[in-house]
Q: What sequence folds into this?
C-alpha cells in the first residue's frame, strides 16, 4: 500500500509538472520510470517470499529463539533437540524432541509434551502444527 501511495504521488507530480510547464514533459517519463521501479521492487519481494515457501526455509532466528525458550521453560523438560521448523502456506510446521526424567510415567511424559505444545501455541504466532516427541533421559552407568 505504501508503494501504491508513492507511485500515485510520483504520477501526480509528473503529470502536474508537465501541465504546469509543457517543456517539463520529461517529468512524466521520470514518474513512469519511478512507478516501474516500484512495480519491480514489489514483484521481487513477492517472488522472494514465495520462493521461501517452496524451499521450506526456516523462520527468522528470533522465532527459533522464542520456540527454544518456550520449550525450555516448561517444567519437566530437561533438554530439547532435533528442532525442525519449516514454513508451509504462511504457517509454521514444527517438530522437536524433548528429554524428560526417565523415571516419569508415560502419562506424565505426555502431559509435559502437551504443556510444551500449549506454551508454543500461546507464544508463537502462525504456528499450525506441533509435534513433540518425548525421550527419556538416559542415566549414566557407573563403571563396574
A:
Amino acid at each position: 500500500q505504501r508503494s501504491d501511495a508513492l507511485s500515485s504521488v510520483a504520477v501526480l507530480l509528473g503529470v502536474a509538472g508537465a501541465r504546469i510547464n509543457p517543456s517539463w514533459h520529461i517529468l512524466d517519463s521520470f514518474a513512469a520510470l519511478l512507478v516501474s521501479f516500484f512495480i519491480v521492487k514489489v514483484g521481487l519481494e513477492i517472488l522472494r517470499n514465495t520462493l521461501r515457501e517452496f524451499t521450506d526455509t526456516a523462520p527468522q532466528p528470533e522465532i527459533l529463539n522464542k520456540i527454544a525458550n518456550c520449550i525450555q521453560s516448561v517444567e519437566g523438560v530437561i533438554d530439547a533437540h532435533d528442532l525442525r521448523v519449516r514454513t508451509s502456506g504462511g504457517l509454521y510446521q514444527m517438530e522437536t524432541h524433548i528429554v524428560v526424567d526417565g523415571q516419569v510415567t508415560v502419562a506424565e511424559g505426555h502431559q509435559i509434551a502437551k504443556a510444551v505444545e500449549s506454551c508454543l501455541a500461546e507464544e508463537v504466532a502462525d504456528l499450525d502444527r506441533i509435534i513433540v516427541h518425548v525421550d527419556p533421559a538416559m542415566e549414566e552407568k557407573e563403571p563396574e
In short: The chain has a mean pLDDT of 86.
